[in-house]
Amino acid sequence: MQNKMITILGTGQVGKAVLDQLQIVRPESAILLVNRSGKAPFDLPKGTNIVGMDATNPGALVDVFQKSDLVFVCMDVPYQNWHTFYPLLSDALVAGLKNTAAKLIFADNMYSYGNRKGEPLYETLAHTAKTQKGKIRADVIKNFERNGLQERVAIVKSSDFIGPRIEKGVFGIDFLANVYRNKAVNLPGNIKLPHHFTFIEDFAKAMVLVAFEPGDFNGVWHVPNAPAISQKDWIDLFRKHTGRPIKYRTIPKIVVKLVGMFNPFVRELQELSYQFEYPYLVNAQRFIEKFGDIATPHDQIVQKTIDWYRETVV
Known about the structure:
alpha/beta, 39% helix, Rossmann fold, two-stranded parallel sheet
């Protein structure tokens, strides 16, 4: 790595998972974490430092890029702040790339493709979403292309997250809390439709695999997932591994709309409801042909998620 650092922008669920993976495959690397506070929400491993800064500040970000060979972008903010945050972050990332030789690995989701109405999501699809959040994510990708920087950018896309430390997923911390309090859990849309979920540890592994292959930039990579099963099937797996009689209820669209009148986060979720109104299927053939199928099986995902929750929360 020519004595330069690996930088991770963001110390949330994805940033932590990428750091964990780097400790496995590149334990000798010097790693810099960047977040707004400069304080780590977890213990830092040896050789890892953290700095506080505003990543939407181009000048500050250029300085970080100049010291880095690889920059993993793992930042996020609440949905209601996307329209201001991502354009600023995108321009700052472009400045960082333009003024350095660093390469960038961008943690992304599937929103930029829009509603495919049950058709599989391929890595070659155009980023033509009609939703506001889909357009925002598409514009980040297009900004790299407009500036001719795609040769040094790898876009790694996930479906909805599942696994430890997930904050706002269907099977995230709120779901687990309700399970262990014997309260009914809420499930969106049609719970019998097949839906690909991405295990967050697989996502981090995929990002790191792509990062250290020089020919893997200038393109989109979909992370392999365990076979698509329904939300009801996932509930059955959580019942099996927790030994608890999990109760659930589905949330009608009209209820989401009413709650959204008072809750900004729920209001922002409304335009993404299509993900649970049709099968949600992700094709990761390009990745599989290059790296193999790294998807963790369903049972292991559920057991690892439960183990984490029991060890750190319960």
